[in-house]
Write a structure and sequence with these properties.
single chain, two-stranded antiparallel sheet, elongated, disordered N terminus, binds guanosine-5'-diphosphate, binds magnesium ion
Length: about 850
C-alpha cells in the first residue's frame, strides 16, 4: 500500500504483538519465532513477558508478545504493561492480532493504537472461522478506512505469516509514514481536547513520549496513570471543568462518551467494509439501523424526516413569530410617537425604516432558526444524523465526496459560516475544499425569510410546502453538480476512504440539545445585532440619499386635479338621489370628510388635533343635514357606512380563515354578505344604488389614484438614490431573468447578508417596516411579478453570491482568497445561468406566467 521512495535498508527491528485474549496472538508468535523464544517477566510485575527472534528477508526481527488486552486504559495491570511497553520502548511496528470473527469488538483496541499514532499492522486472524460464519471483508476499503495495512492470517495453519512479515517490514522501512487517521471524537469532546491540548503543548517535559492530544484524551478519560503525572494546576482545572461540562451536556462521563465514539467509528467502518452474509445481527442499534440505513428505505426515510422537520419548524414557529412581530411594531410606533405624525425627520426614518425595519425583519426568524436547530440537534444527539450521513454516503461516493461532507452540508441549512468551519472534520484537503465550495448551496436559515415572503404571495396553500421543499432540493442537486464539476475540473484523483462513525442510538439530554441550539441561535442573533445592524444603516442611507427635491412630475397639481375630478363626480350623483343639480350638500359633506382625513394626518390618534378634526367634520355634517335635502344626505352617508362595514367584515373573515375564492366556505360567507346587503338595499333601493355607485365608481378609483401618486413619488426618490442607481445599472443584466431594478437593489443587500433582502425590498417599495410576513409587500410583489419570476428570484437568491460573512469564512478556512473568489464568482455565474434557463423556458412553455 504505502511505497517508500528510497528503500532504506534496515536490518534490525522490534515488533510487538498485541490483541484481545484468545485472538491467536501466542499462536502467531510461535509461528513467527519458531523455537527461538525467551519467557520472563516484565520488570517489577508478575506479568509474563515472552520475546523471540526471527529473520525475514534479511531483517532481524525482535518479536515481543504483549499481554492480551481488550483496551489500553489503565484499569488492569495487563493493559498498563502493554501500553507502557508501547510508549516507553517504542517498538518499530505494532502488530494487532484481530479475531476476524469478532471484528467490531477486536477493533476497539485498534482504535486506541490509532490514537497513540504508532506504526500499525493489522492481522485479520481466524479468517477461516470468519469465512465459515459468512463474514466477508472488503480488505482494501477497510485498510483505507483504518489507515493501516491489513493482512489475513490463519494462525494455527501458518497461513499469511509471510505476508504479515512483509507488511511489517514495509511499514518499518517507510520513513515518511503518513500520520495515521485521526479519529474525530465529535464537536463537544474535540472542543475540550483542543483546549487541554493547547495547555499541555507548553509542557515540554511531559510531551516527550506521547502526543499532547493523546495526553489530553487520557486526562479527560480520567486515566489513573496519566493523572499521576505532575500536571500544573491550570491543566488540572481545565480538565475538571471540561469533565463537568461534558457530563452536564452529554449526560455521561467523558470515558463513556469517548468509548461510544470509538465504537461508533468502528461500527461505521464495518458497515462500509464488512458484510454479514449469514449471521443475524443482534444489538438494538443494529436492529434500528437495519431500517434506518436500509438500502431502499434509508433515503426516503431521511427525506421524510427532513420534510417533517421543516413543517414543524414553520407550524410551531408561527406563534412566537407573531409576538416578535407585534413587539417590533409596538417599538416602531412608540418611537414614531416621539415625532409629530407624518414627520419626514431623517432620524425617525433611520430608526424606524432603517434599524427597526432591518434588524426586526431578521430577528423575527429567530423562532424558526431555534426550532430548526433544535430538530437538527435532536437528530444529531440521538445518533440519527450519523445514519443520515451514512445513507448519503452511497450517493456521495458517486460524486467523489463522502458522507462525512454531508454533515457540514447539513449544518449549512442553518448557516454557511459554522458549516464551513465544520469542514474541519474532513481530513482530506480536496474533500474539504469541495465541501466548502458547495456548502452555500445548502439553503441557509437567512434565505428562509425570502422564501416565506415570496411563496405565500405567489403559490396556493397546497403548493407552498412542496415549493419550499423543491427549492432546498434544487440547492442540493446543484451542489452535487458543482462537486462533480470541481472533482473533474479542479481535483483529479481517487476519492479517499473514510470512516463514517455510527454511534449507538442515545436519548439526547435536554442540556445537550439546548447548548447546541443556543450556540447557533446566538450566532444568528449576533449577526443580526452587528453585521445586519450596520448593513441596515448603510442600506437605508443608500436608499435615502441623495434626496430628491424636484420631481419629474408635478404631483401637487396631479393630486389637485384628481381631487377636483372626484368632487365633480360626486355632484353627478345628485340626480340619482333626486337632489337638485345645483345643490352642494353631497360635495360639501364628502369634502368635509376628505378634509378631516387630511388634517388628521398631522396627528397621532391620541392627540387632541386628531379629535378636533373629527369634531369639525361632524359639525359640518350636522349643519348640512339640517338643510332641505339633508334627510337624503343622512341616509346616503349612513348607507355608505353600513355597506362598508358589511364588506370589511366579509374581507376580514375571509382573511382570518384563509379561505380561497370559490371554496364552499367562501361561498357561504359570500351568501351571508349578499343577504345582509339585500336587507340594506330594501330599506331604500334608490339611495342604496347611489351609495354603491359612490363606493365602487368614485371613491375606490380615487383612493387608488392617490396611492399610485404616493408610490410614484417614492419610486422617483428610490430611483434617484444610490441604491436605485446601482439597481438600475444592473437591470439590463437582470432583465432576462425576469427581475427588475427593485430586485437588483435588494440583491445588493442580499450580498451583504441574505436576510437583508427582505428588509431592502421593503425599503425599495417604500413600505417602512417590513418583514417576510408583510402582506403589503406581498401585494406589491404580486403586482410586479409572475409566479415564474418569483420562483426565479428564490432560485437566484439560493445559488448566487453567498453573503460576505461566508466569503470571509471561506477565505479564512481555505487559507486563500482564490477559493473565496471562486466561490463568489462561480456560484453567481451558475445562479445566473440556471435562473436564465428556468425563466426563459418557463416563458417558452407558458408555465407560471
Ligand atoms: P492468545 O490468547 O491470543 O494468545 O490466543 P492463542 O494463540 O492461545 O489461541 C487461542 C486459540 O485459537 C488456540 O486454540 C489456537 O489454536 C486458535 N487459533 C489461533 N489462530 C487461529 C486461526 O486463525 N483460526 C482458528 N480457527 N483458530 C485459531
Ligand atoms: Mg496467549
Amino acid at each position: 500500500m504505502r511505497k517508500n521512495k528510497m528503500s532504506s535498508k534496515i536490518n534490525k527491528i522490534t515488533i510487538a504483538l498485541v490483541g484481545n485474549p484468545n485472538s491467536g496472538k501466542t499462536t502467531i508468535f510461535n509461528k513467527i519465532t519458531g523455537e527461538r523464544q525467551h519467557v520472563g517477566n516484565y520488570a517489577g510485575v508478575t506479568v509474563e513477558k515472552k520475546d523471540g527472534y526471527c529473520e525475514h528477508k534479511g531483517v532481524n526481527i525482535h518479536v515481543v508478545d504483549l499481554p492480551g488486552t481488550y483496551s489500553l486504559t489503565a484499569f488492569s495491570l495487563e493493559e498498563l504493561v502493554a501500553r507502557n511497553f508501547i510508549i516507553d520502548e517504542k517498538p518499530d511496528v505494532i502488530v494487532d492480532i484481530l479475531d476476524a470473527s469478532n471484528i467490531e469488538r477486536n477493533l476497539y483496541l485498534a482504535t486506541q493504537l490509532m490514537e497513540l499514532n504508532v506504526p500499525l499492522v493489522l492481522a485479520l486472524n481466524m479468517s477461516d472461522t470468519a469465512k465459515l460464519r459468512g463474514i466477508e471483508f472488503d480488505l482494501k476499503l477497510l485498510s483505507d478506512l483504518l489507515g493501516s495495512p491489513i493482512v489475513t492470517t490463519i494462525g494455527h495453519k501458518g497461513k499469511g505469516i509471510n505476508e504479515l512479515l512483509d507488511a511489517v517490514i514495509s511499514v518499518a522501512e517507510d520513513e515518511n509514514r503518513a500520520p495515521g487517521i485521526q479519529m474525530n471524537l465529535g464537536r463537544d469532546i474535540e472542543k475540550h481536547i483542543n483546549k487541554i491540548q493547547g495547555l499541555i503543548e507548553r509542557e515540554q517535559k511531559l510531551t516527550e513520549k506521547c502526543s499532547p492530544r493523546w495526553l489530553a484524551i487520557k486526562l479527560l478519560e480520567n486515566d489513573k496513570e496519566i493523572h499521576q503525572e505532575n500536571w500544573p494546576d491550570d491543566i488540572i482545572q481545565a480538565t475538571e471543568k471540561a469533565v463537568r461540562r461534558i457530563e452536564e451536556v452529554l449526560g455521561d462521563s467523558p470515558e463513556i462518551i469517548i468509548a461510544d465514539k470509538r465504537y461508533g467509528i468502528i461500527s461505521g467502518a464495518c458497515q462500509e467494509a464488512v458484510r454479514l452474509t449469514v449471521e443475524a445481527r443482534h444489538t438494538y442499534s443494529d436492529k434500528i439501523d437495519e431500517v434506518l440505513t436500509n438500502r431502499i428505505l434509508g433515503l426516503p426515510i431521511f427525506f421524510i424526516m427532513m420534510y417533517i422537520v421543516f413543517q414543524l419548524t414553520f407550524a410551531f414557529g408561527e406563534i412566537p413569530m407573531g409576538w416578535i412581530e407585534n413587539g417590533f411594531a409596538f417599538l416602531g410606533d412608540s418611537i414614531s410617537y416621539l415625532w409629530p405624525n407624518g414627520s419626514d425627520s431623517l432620524l425617525l426614518s433611520l430608526l424606524v425604516d432603517g434599524i427597526i425595519g432591518g434588524v426586526g425583519g431578521v430577528i423575527v426568524f429567530v423562532p424558526n432558526i431555534f426550532l430548526l436547530f433544535m430538530a437538527i440537534a435532536i437528530l444529531e444527539d440521538t445518533g440519527y444524523m450519523a445514519r443520515a450521513a451514512f445513507n448519503m454516503d452511497r450517493l456521495m461516493h458517486k460524486i467523489g465526496l463522502h458522507g462525512k461532507s454531508f454533515i457540514p452540508m447539513l449544518v449549512g441549512f442553518g448557516c454557511s459560516v459554522p458549516a464551513i468551519m465544520a469542514t474541519r472534520t474532513l481530513e482530506n484537503r480536496r474533500d474539504r475544499l469541495i465541501t466548502m465550495m458547495i456548502v452555500p448551496l445548502m439553503s441557509c436559515g437567512a434565505r428562509l425569510p425570502i422564501y416565506t415572503l415570496i411563496i405565500p404571495a405567489f403559490f396556493p396553500q397546497v403548493w407552498q410546502a412542496p415549493i419550499l421543499w423543491l427549492i432546498y432540493l434544487i440547492g442540493i442537486m446543484v451542489a452535487i453538480g458543482v462537486a462533480k464539476l470541481l472533482r473533474i475540473a479542479v481535483f483529479k484523483g481517487e476519492s479517499s476512504a473514510f470512516v463514517m462513525e455510527l454511534p449507538p442510538y442515545r436519548i439526547p439530554t435536554l442540556k445537550g440539545v439546548m447548548v447546541h441550539v443556543w450556540e447557533r441561535t446566538w450566532l444568528y442573533l449576533r449577526k443580526a445585532g452587528t453585521v445586519i445592524l450596520a448593513i441596515s444603516i448603510v442600506m437605508w442611507a443608500l436608499s435615502t440619499f441623495p434626496q430628491k427635491t424636484v420631481y419629474d412630475h408635478d404631483y401637487d397639481a396631479i393630486t389637485e386635479q384628481s381631487t377636483n375630478d372626484y368632487l365633480s363626480a360626486i355632484r353627478g350623483l345628485n340626480p340619482l338621489l333626486d337632489i337638485s343639480p345645483q345643490s352642494t350638500v353631497l360635495v360639501d359633506a364628502l369634502h368635509a370628510e376628505y378634509n378631516m382625513i387630511e388634517e388628521q394626518q398631522a396627528f397621532h390618534p391620541f392627540e387632541t388635533g386628531f379629535e378636533m378634526a373629527e369634531q369639525k367634520k361632524n359639525k359640518t355634517i350636522d349643519r348640512l343635514v339640517q338643510s332641505e335635502e339633508g334627510k337624503k344626505l343622512a341616509v346616503f352617508l349612513e348607507m355608505i357606512e353600513q355597506i362598508s362595514v358589511v364588506r370589511n367584515n366579509f374581507d376580514a373573515s375571509i382573511e382570518q380563515n384563509e379561505l380561497e375564492t370559490g371554496t364552499t366556505k367562501y361561498l357561504l360567507f359570500d351568501q351571508e354578505k349578499d343577504h345582509t346587503l339585500e336587507a340594506i338595499e330594501k330599506s331604500n333601493p334608490v339611495i342604496y344604488q347611489a351609495a354603491v355607485k359612490y363606493i365602487d365608481d368614485i371613491k375606490s378609483p380615487y383612493d387608488e389614484k392617490m396611492s399610485e401618486i404616493n408610490q410614484l413619488i417614492h419610486s422617483e426618490q428610490m430611483t434617484y438614490s444610490i441604491a436605485g442607481r446601482i439597481g438600475k445599472g444592473i437591470e439590463p443584466v437582470l432583465k432576462p431573468l425576469g427581475f427588475d431594478w427593485k430586485i437588483g437593489t435588494a440583491l445588493i443587500g442580499a450580498f451583504a447578508a441574505k436576510e437583508v433582502f427582505v428588509a431592502q425590498l421593503g425599503i425599495v417599495y417604500s413600505l417602512g417596516e417590513t418583514d417576510a410576513k408583510s402582506d403589503a409587500l406581498r401585494q406589491k410583489l404580486q403586482k410586479d411579478f409572475t409566479p415564474l419570476a418569483a420562483f426565479c428570484i428564490m432560485i437566484f437568491c439560493l445559488i448566487s453570491a453567498p453573503c460576505m460573512a461566508t466569503i470571509a469564512t471561506t477565505r479564512q478556512e481555505s487559507g486563500s482568497w482564490k477559493w473565496a473568489m471562486l466561490q463568489l464568482g462561480g456560484l453567481t455565474l451558475i445562479a445566473y445561468i440556471l435562473t436564465l434557463v428556468i425563466y426563459q423556458s418557463g416563458l417558452l412553455f407558458g408555465i407560471g406566467i
